[in-house]
Design goal:
Distance between the termini: 39 Å
Strand content: under 5%
Oligomer: single chain
Helix content: 55-70%
Structural class: mainly alpha
Shape: globular
Order of helices and strands: HHHH
Largest sheet: none
Length: 82
Amino acid sequence: MITSEPTPDTRTDLLREELDRLHFYGNNGWTSGYGQEQAKRLLRDLRSKGQLDRGLVLGYMLAKQHNGKSIARLGKIIDQLS
């Protein structure tokens, strides 16, 4: 059903802060090194809190203008979390 109303933003302030931090760590496209290690730590933490939504994370990074290759790399990182 189309209502012409904006979709409500259900993200918490904390989740938005974490997504912004993840965006910062992606300054090198989440390649090996500090940014990737910090991203893994942050993503594991989100997962442990039940707040890791792969589509939301990748969509947010797309909206922040990360390129497709970087977003694909981040998707692999999410998929390989242990």
